[in-house]
């Protein structure tokens, strides 16, 4: 019998997956994790994601789209949005062209 884990699954889609070589990461939850704390912890585990997710000022890139269980969330107040166990967080970088 597999032990239940209480954590969040982070999926990297599109250009994030291609540039980092990372498709999926599972992090155990620590207390009152929020989207913001999970993203910071994700970079701690996979430092290559730092420049992909955050700008030089330490803010989330404005072209990063974040989905919680397939529902889009705004980047405002990410430290106020709690993460529940068994949540899937999907990160997609918007790509433009011309």
Task: Give your account of this protein's structure.
- With 98 residues, the chain is an alpha+beta fold.
- It has helices spanning 15-20, 35-45, 50-53, and strands at residues 7-13, 24-28, 64-68, 71-73, 87-93.
- A five-stranded mixed sheet has the order 2-1-5-3-4.
- The longest helix is centred in the middle third of the chain and has 11 residues, at 35-45.
- The radius of gyration is 13 Å and the shape is globular.
- The mean pLDDT is 88.
What is shown here, in short?
With 98 residues, the protein is α+β, with helices and mostly antiparallel strands. It is built from 3 helices and 5 strands.
| Class from secondary-structure proportions | alpha+beta
- The first-level CATH class name: Alpha Beta
Total count of helical runs of at least 4 residues: 3
Overall pLDDT score: 88
What helical percentage do the residues reach?
Answer: 10-25%
How are the strands of the biggest sheet laid out side by side?
A: 2-1-5-3-4
CATH homology group? Beta-grasp domain
Compute the gyration radius: what is it? 13 Å
What is the domain total for the residues?
A: 1
Low-confidence stretches: none
Number of strands: 5
What fold name stands as the CATH topology?
Answer: Ubiquitin-like (UB roll)
| CATH architectural grouping | Roll
Cα-to-Cα separation, first versus last residue: 52 Å
Shape: globular
């Amino acid at each position: 019998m597999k032990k239940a884990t209480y954590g969040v699954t982070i999926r990297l889609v599109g250009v994030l997956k291609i540039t980092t070589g990372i498709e999926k990461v599972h992090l155990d939850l620590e207390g009152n994790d929020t989207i913001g704390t999970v993203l910071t912890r994700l970079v701690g585990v996979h430092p290559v994601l730092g420049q992909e997710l955050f700008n030089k000022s330490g803010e989330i890139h404005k072209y990063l789209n974040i989905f919680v269980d397939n529902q889009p969330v705004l980047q405002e107040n990410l430290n106020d949005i709690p993460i529940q166990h068994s949540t899937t967080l999907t990160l997609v970088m918007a790509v433009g062209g011309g």
